[in-house]
Amino acid sequence: MHYMRMYRYGRLDKKKRKYRFVSDNGYYCIHEPEHPLVSKNGYVYEHRYVYYNEVSKDTGDCRMCGKELTWVSACIDHINENKKDNRPENLRPLCMQCNAQRSRKEEWIRNKRVMTLTIDGETHSVAQWVKKSGVDISPSTVIRRKKVMGYSDFDALYSPKITHNGKS
C-alpha cells in the first residue's frame, strides 16, 4: 500500500482532501462526511448542502409541477442558471423531469407557445393546471374549450365533461 502511494503521489503521506473544490460538472463540492446528504466519497454538493441547512430539511413539492419530492428524487435548481451562485434565494427544488425541461418550459411560456391560465391570481400552464386535484379533463380539452369554444379560464378547467352525444 505504501509503495503504491509513493508510486502515485511521490510521497508516503496520505493525500489530504480539499474541503471545497469544483467538480467536473461545474458544481462546488464540500467535504462534510457527517452530513445526511453525503455521497460515498464524503462530499456533498454545496447547493444541496445550503438548501438543506439554510432553507429546509424537507424538499417539499416540485416548484414547477407540484410533484411530491424526496431528497433522492429532488434536483436543487439554480434559478439564475449560475452553478456557482449558491445563495438560498437562488435555489429551489424541482423533480428530475422539470429540471431537465425547465429552460425550455420557461422559454415556451415567455414566447406564449404554451397556453397559460390565470385563476384567483395564480398563473400556470394548462398541463400544470390539469395535474391539480379537482380537474378531470385532458389538456387538449382545456385548449379546445379556450380556443374554439371561447370559455373563460375557470370554465375551461372546471366545467363538467360533456360527451359527443350530450351526456355528462
According to DSSP, the number of beta strands is: 7
Strand content: 15-25%
N→C terminal distance: 76 Å
Quick check: average pLDDT?
83
Helix and strand run: HEEEHEEHEEHHH
Q: Point out poorly predicted stretches.
A: none
What order do the strands of the largest sheet run in, or round the barrel if closed?
A: 1-2-3
| Approximate shape | elongated
* CATH arch. level architecture of the largest domain: Alpha-Beta Complex
Structural class: alpha+beta
Describe this structure in words.
By secondary structure, the protein is of the alpha+beta class. It folds into two domains: 16-100, Homing Intron 3 (I-Ppo) Encoded Endonuclease, Chain A (Alpha-Beta Complex); 115-158, no CATH class. The chain contains six helices and seven strands. The strands form three sheets. It has a three-stranded antiparallel beta sheet. A two-stranded antiparallel ribbon has the order 4-5. A hairpin with a 2-residue loop joins strand 6 (116-119) and strand 7 (122-125). The longest helix has 15 residues, at 96-110. The chain is elongated, with a radius of gyration of 24 Å. The model has no long low-confidence stretch (mean pLDDT 83).
